[in-house]
Amino acid sequence: MSNQSSVEIQTEWDIVAARQLGRNVAKELGFGTVDQARITTAISELARNIYLYAGQGKIEIQRLTENGINGILIIAADSGPGIPDIRKVMEDGFSTSGGLGAGLPGVKRLMDDFKIETTLGEGTDIRATKWLR
Amino acid sequence: MSNQSSVEIQTEWDIVAARQLGRNVAKELGFGTVDQARITTAISELARNIYLYAGQGKIEIQRLTENGINGILIIAADSGPGIPDIRKVMEDGFSTSGGLGAGLPGVKRLMDDFKIETTLGEGTDIRATKWLR
Amino acid sequence: MVQKIGSQYKEILNQYMQRQSEQNLYVGQNFSRQLISENTSPEDVISMHKAAMQELYEEMPDTVWHSFDFLIEMMINYGLALQERQSLLQRQEELRMEMDLAANVQATLLKTTMPSLDGLDIGLLSVPLRKMNGDYIYFISDENGHAGIAVADVIGKGLPAALCMSMVKFGMDSMNDSMAFPREVLSTINRIVEKSVDDSMFVSMFYGRYEAETSILTYGSAGHEPAMLYRAETGEFEELTVKGLLLGVSPMATYEEKEVELKKNDMVIMMTDGVTEGRTAEGFIDRQVINELILRKIDEPAQVMVQYVYDELVRLQNAELSDDFTLVIYKKV
Amino acid sequence: MVQKIGSQYKEILNQYMQRQSEQNLYVGQNFSRQLISENTSPEDVISMHKAAMQELYEEMPDTVWHSFDFLIEMMINYGLALQERQSLLQRQEELRMEMDLAANVQATLLKTTMPSLDGLDIGLLSVPLRKMNGDYIYFISDENGHAGIAVADVIGKGLPAALCMSMVKFGMDSMNDSMAFPREVLSTINRIVEKSVDDSMFVSMFYGRYEAETSILTYGSAGHEPAMLYRAETGEFEELTVKGLLLGVSPMATYEEKEVELKKNDMVIMMTDGVTEGRTAEGFIDRQVINELILRKIDEPAQVMVQYVYDELVRLQNAELSDDFTLVIYKKV
Ligand SMILES: [Mn+2]
Ligand SMILES: [Mn+2]
Ligand SMILES: [Mn+2]
Ligand SMILES: [Mn+2]
């Protein structure tokens, strides 16, 4: 079972809209305040990456149910330049030390599951899931 | 100018008494709430080290004035076994990762100035200062 | 400075207190980022929060203010942990620089020159998992079209492996014989490794001796990942298996050798286990996958093939390699 | 689990709200330590705080609860920084283990056997500043009483220096000639170093060839700290100066050599600059100090002398060495 909705990211305001969408869904699914804030932060980070590095793209939020457990899936997709060195962007301290934000390692930590696919010149697709425990 | 007072450390209650003394002096000197808490934490850590590793010793609190600036000096003195490897106890993550507390690197960070003298079999003398800015 | 941050905080908090909107939370969180980058401790954040609340809502019960004092006390150790992170990041940066320098030294020490041989198109890629490569390729060649290639892998990674590898290189240098056969090369290097490193370090090695005139590759292996032979005529792959113990196990080890004659568009694909032992969420990547990747670029130059195989395997493994990666293709043209 | 922590928190907070005593803050701070060690994020602390306050004081204005929600949002990035610290600590621990292992590999790779020569008492000590030694001693000897000793120092410390040293060792191994004279040895190793490492890496080296039959030491130096000669007859020390460029500067470098005949109780003291360039609070330690230390143990075996010099120099420098330390004494007996 899944149920989806999405926000196109083009301006900084769209980041806020994506956050709002994610927070609403998280709340409806029954996530607590702290987890709502974590999910929203992850969305924020992904949307901001699209806004800053890809120019435009889409954040999609899906409700998941697997083995009777509910969860939320964030999909961040863009057709930007792609990430030349994934290992580098997944490294601790690479983006955060300059105060640039949580970065992708942050998103990975905020969520339970994290997958990234990127092709140079074609774009990037990131999927992050959090389960309701 | 200096003005002192001290607490003998023998039981865990004495740690609390040393904290109280330090917090009172810090407050009187005009340190804000956060700095009061930092100074108190540093005292707590030093007193706890005496209690755990030296068995007994003394925490002394002095008021300092230098070039018109007020400050607080914590002296932690014991005649315990001394520290065999100072480089090791001053290393990050050595004491903190196990949740053992801030350790000596923590005390150093909480205060402006930190000095340690230790002799095996004779004891340890630690002095830490914080200036009122 | 602190005062400026405090009044910014108050302003942002006030906006949120007026209207609990996502927009105001977003602004708050961006501000928290800035605070972290300026090394503002969490206890300072609580303290600013308390001060802002006191200015905005004077009439609160004392309980509220006490509750913030308690939180400040709770956050002191969190603040210390955060400062520790700062110094760990710095130390990591220093180590990174030392490792970079060491990796350069290693690269210069171990440099080898790809031979240019009549009728052979060579593609080569060797990517270390961390800074220092524990895989190693050594070439030797002469003007008469004889060329040797050693593909080696130290069991173990990182620094210890890298140190060990310099030994293999100096062993090959001291033989200095482009016409040597695999069984001689492998037993010589085996004796050096056995003598020079402790019992827990082993090296696997594939050695291939190619003669341009006859297009014959003679090969031997010391417990190394088997090379693959691609026959253009049938479009099929076969493993080049050959017996031999890992280097460093026993000074008495002897090595088998076999030969294969390459025809036009045939390929020999040499690799380390970092190529074949990748894992995806679905399990290990098997040789079938690698063969298919090669087939997709079968008409391209050897260098394009190795790069494509690497890129695709990285993608399949979600960028999480677990070993040094070395792939060499000899393509008869 | 989380619930248990929550109710503990509420209890501790409640105590503090009843009475704002130092005792209760102490309990709270000890609890915060436990929370950190269990990886509880600061946003979780705020959330527990809010929940506890809600249970303890239902009647608070909504503003208070909103204010905590805002704090939770502010703390998310702090929580991430804390998790990053955790993984940095882990990585640091891994690196430490890797360095230890690498130091072992290096020690095994570079091991050398002290020769036993008629009429010569040898003392030797080499202590690295950090994990990896950038100083190196190499011995070669035969049954006819010929022995060579190389004392080398890579300019630079740590990892890059250690990697470079393996090259010197393999160079010496490949010469494998205990009768070789310093000028040949130094020029051979010079060419290897010059060829194999980049332009920023140099090695200083002292080479001594000793013949037991004649008691003659022939020596040369590639920009290395001069050795000292002690004459038992006069009780005086003199420097054994000899010209030669650092290894790796120019492939054309040539090396001078000189010889000295050792009489009974004469000594040759070889060292790296880590011995002579120590600093005390009063300034550099000069050779005079070292000579005096040796004189104090002049009737002891060579090994006792080197150990004594080391111990005393460490004491003088307040245990803060600034370079790798290597000292060798040849004493004619
Ligand atoms: Mn390996
Ligand atoms: Mn491998
Ligand atoms: Mn050195
Ligand atoms: Mn030196």
Automatic annotation (TrEMBL), chains A, B:
Q: Which SMART domains match?
A: HATPase_c
**InterPro entries xrefs:** HATPase_C_sf, HATPase_dom
Q: Which Gene3D superfamilies match?
A: Histidine kinase-like ATPase, C-terminal domain
Q: Note one Pfam family from the annotation.
A: HATPase_c
- Residues folding into a coiled coil are none
Q: Domain Histidine kinase/HSP90-like ATPase: where?
A: 34-133
Q: Where, by residue number, does the polypeptide cross the bilayer? A: none
Question: What is the name of this protein?
Answer: Anti-sigma regulatory factor
The record lists the organism as Metaplanococcus flavidus
Automatic annotation (TrEMBL), chains C, D:
Domain named PPM-type phosphatase is located at 115-330, 117-332
Top EC class for this record: hydrolase
UniProt cross-references to SUPFAM superfamilies, sorted A to Z: KaiA/RbsU domain, PP2C-like
What keywords is this UniProt entry annotated with?
A: Hydrolase
Q: Which residues form the signal peptide?
A: none
By its UniProt entry, which Gene3D superfamilies does this protein fall under?
KaiA/RbsU domain, PPM-type phosphatase domain
**Which sequence ranges form a coiled-coil region, renumbered to this chain?**
none
**Protein name (Swiss-Prot/TrEMBL):** PP2C family protein-serine/threonine phosphatase
